[in-house]
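Field: COMPLEX_INPUT
Field: COMPONENT_COUNT = three
Field: RESIDUE_TOTAL = 242
Field: MODE = joint
Values follow.
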Amino acid sequence: MRFTFTTEPARFIERPNRYVILAEIRSGVTVRAHCPDPGRLRELLIPGATVHLSSTPREGRRTTHELRFVERPETGLLISLDSRLPNALFREALDERTLEPFSDWTAYEPEVFLPASGGRIRSRADFLLRGQDGARTWVEVKSATLVEDRCAYFPDAVTERGRRHLEELAAIARSGERAAVCFIVQRPDADMLRPQWDRDPAFAEALEEAERAGVLLTAYNADITLSEATLRRRIPVLTGRP
DNA sequence: GCAGGATAGCGTCGGGCATG
DNA sequence: CATGCCCGACGCTATCCTGC
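Field: COMPLEX_OUTPUT
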């Protein structure tokens, strides 16, 4: 997927709130940029780190720039910080039928309500695919940016909502329909993905339980450049406690 | 008084709904 | 039918509140 924006490098200063960062661009001016990834990002947004911003001037907008990437300090490797990108990448891959587990559809629909379970409020799945045989597959796409020792970790911060999604997918799988999670790691340097047992044990347990219930767990890493993002290869999801 | 839990607000986007 | 407004989603953090 080619990006429709261009970026300029900047030096990360601070993050006054989860949506906003301050960074110094080359002219020496400090600018406010919207942070499109509400995760914690503690390991990535370190003062002094090189980030890449696109200019987004628009009337009524409170920031002049959008945070797009952060560089890994030692290597300069680019990491995308846009939590909307994984969804777009997944959709593009659906259209091009490049992901083996998700290539056999006759129609799909984004943002669909999950079947109501127990009369509770229904949450939404990212995609609903219809197969050749008419069978339905519910897919939840998740964005991961944190990698340590070539292992991606999800979530970055405790996610009540993410856990609930997994439980709902597990219920779907038990009812005989298909359900899947697709983690998109927005960087190339991960060979596997694990849940964060210490930061969010409830999510990790729900992921294990979802797998037992028959939910398909998939993950892909991505090549990120200043001009495009490409899903690179499928990596294993390891649910067990390390 | 203190610790821990609950909650609001932060910026943007897009879906849904109301209005013309 | 087209346009535009409003509100929900997203997670971190500061602040407020509750209960001991």
